[in-house]
Amino acid sequence: MQPIVITGVGAISSVGIGKENFWDGLIAGRNGVTYIESFDTSAYRTHRGGEVKNFHPLPGTEELGRCSQFAIHAAREALADAGLDWSALPAFRTGLTLGTTLWESPMQEHIDDIMRTPGFAACRRRLVPLAVPEAIPANLGRALRLRGPVNLITTACAAGNYALGHAASLLRSETVDLMLAGGSDPISRIAYTGFSSMMAIAAERCQPFDRNRKGMVPGEGCAILVLERYDTARRRGAPIYAELAGCGISNDAHHMTAPHPEGRGAVRAMMRALAAASIEPGDVDYISAHGTGTPANDKTETLAMKQVFGADAARKPLSSIKSMLGHTMSAASALEAVACVLAVKRGVVPPTINYEEPDPECDLDYIPNQARELKVHIAVSNAYAIGGHCSSVVLRRVA
Predict the structure, then answer these.
(1) Entry pTM
(2) What are the angstrom distances between the C-alpha of 219 and each of 57, 264, 359?
(3) pLDDT, tens digit, for every residue of 320-350?
(4) To the nearest whole percent, how much of the chain has pLDDT over 90?
(5) How many C-alpha atoms does 130 have within 13 Å on its Cβ side?
(6) Distance of alpha carbon 102 from alpha carbon 192, whole angstroms
(7) DSSP string covering 269-330
(8) Which residues does 100 contact at the CB level (< 8 Å), separation at least 6?
(9) How far apart are CA 114 and CA 132, in angstroms?
(10) How far is it, in rounded angstroms, from Cα 148 to Cα 86?
(11) How far apart (Å, rounded) are the C-alpha atoms in residues 213 and 284?
(12) Residue-wise pLDDT tens digits, 212-267
């Protein structure tokens, strides 16, 4: 079976727009959590988020929602990074699988605001088709002139990993020759209200695995990756970042928002991903943790790591880039996949910032506060979501 490889990446985040700015921000340990400017937070108890500043939509996309704008921008970057001209893609042999959690929610909020004013009807007719979830892959498909499979996955914060796994399946079946996969999510009042109502938002910063962690911080962003079969990529001389060697998904079937206390869904997803890649836990060099900074998630994820890696768990470096970006929902696992393939390629892994006091229940190597030089042959990226969705992908260096 032909390996599936990643040949291009595009990223938009609160620490940098574009692959290089994103990577530089991660390795510098830059904190992208700032005061929110896109909506009024005065009614909330917290006021900060991982908001993307100074983003300018590409010409022709100004009327679209922010989620679509992010996706088109990141997709164009990823294709250019892969040495491909977006306007000359093999349209019927190119597909797209995109994850999102909160779709074009800022657009929906805008419609709701308009509907409270007189004379809203004409504006509603124009805007409503741009606000529905299916508008996002449709907008991206039209922008890139795609005629292959175009899909949307909505398994919340695990959707980026689900999208990568689905893209790999389509390539293995030879339904397509080229896939774009990733996740995109904008920050919005809807997201902020939801997490605020659960008392899940930290007031100042995200501190994954720290004893004094207070919760997650909502964020926004997008990452798109270009996937191809190995033979296709080699034939056209494409740059290869890494192989997408395995994907594992599961559901812990426990609670709508809380992880299973024994981490059974997380364990099953990691073990399935490792089995799909035909590797042993001891072969893994680095783990990109889900690491939200909530008391339950970080404790449970640590427990899951110990079950999967056994006595080696304490020696496995792992980090959470959410400490810098905030939680970017469906974009999170896609951005983390980009971070992993760049770590594989460049021999450096990003830190977990804001780590100050160890927690006896979170006692692994979280790469605190400073990036670390590390030769990464195999990386695992974890993503867990509301609804019990659990996912892991394995990314492997290509010789």
Answers:
(1) 0.93
(2) 18, 27, 25
(3) 999 999 999 999 999 999 999 999 999 999 9
(4) 72
(5) 20
(6) 11
(7) HHHHHHHHTT--GGG--EEE----S-HHHHHHHHHHHHHHHGGGGGGS-EE-THHHH-B-TH
(8) 67, 133, 136, 152, 153, 154, 159, 183, 184, 185, 329, 330
(9) 16
(10) 14
(11) 27
(12) 999 999 999 999 999 999 999 999 999 999 999 999 999 987 776 677 777 789 99
Q: With contact defined as beta carbons under 8 Å apart, do 270 and 304 qualify?
A: yes
Identify the CA nearest to 99 among candidates 388, 389, 399. 389
- As a whole number of angstroms, the distance between CA 302 and CA 209 comes to 9
Q: What is the rounded CA–CA span in Å between residue 151 and residue 179?
A: 11
CB 74 within 8 A of CB 222: yes
E strand map for 154-304:
178-185, 221-229, 242-251, 286-288
Contact 384, 332 (CB under 8 A): no
Domains and CATH numbers, the chain: 4-396 (3.40.47.10)
Q: Is 91 helix (H, G, I), strand (E, B) or coil?
A: helix
- Report how far residue 75's alpha carbon sits from residue 87's, in angstroms, rounded to the nearest whole number: 12
Q: How far apart are the first and last CA of the chain?
A: 17
Specify the DSSP element, H or E, that contains 35.
strand 34-35
Pull the structure tokens for residue 380: 């695992």
Residues labelled catalytic: 157, 290, 327
Q: Tokens for 372?
A: 């670390």
